[in-house]
User: Fold Fimbrial assembly family protein from Candidatus Falkowbacteria bacterium GW2011_GWE1_38_31.
Amino acid sequence: MITLNIIPDELKNEIKLNDHYVFYKKVMSLILFMAIFFSAVLLTAKIILATQQSDTDQQNTIITKSSENYSKQINEINIQLKEIKSIQNNDINWTDFFLSMNDFIGNEIKISRLYAGKNDNSLRISGIAKSRNDLLAFKEKLEKSEKFSNINLPISSLLEKENINFEISATITSYDFK
Assistant:
């Protein structure tokens, strides 16, 4: 079989141009279709991201408001803790005070009244001593202690020999009675 090409050259060129035109038309249609498809995908993605961004912003707002509330509560608790610490720093452990006073007093001294003033650091002790020597030993223990100074025992308390009513005053120099 023999192929004869008897079509004039002008027509051949026109057919080639027409074939090129159809080819380019298909390519352009494909490109246009792909552009529309990707535009739709990107638009959908943009809408989804905008929705998620809005949800995230709302959650951030809620979290921020709740964290502000927690911050206020934490600040209030910190203020209360500072006040408690201040109170504890200025507090006297009275149990230790009375236990240490018990070491000074012994069995020979009976205390009827004990006053310890924190504001003026004063100490006044009233009671009954079995003997003058017991009272002097009690005064000496107070004087040897670093916690008290200016121990004052009136001489009138030393005039009696037994069952002596006394009142001693002193200055508290340290409240660390441990």
Q: What stands out?
A: The helical segments are 9-90, 94-105, 132-144. The two ends are 126 Å apart (CA to CA).
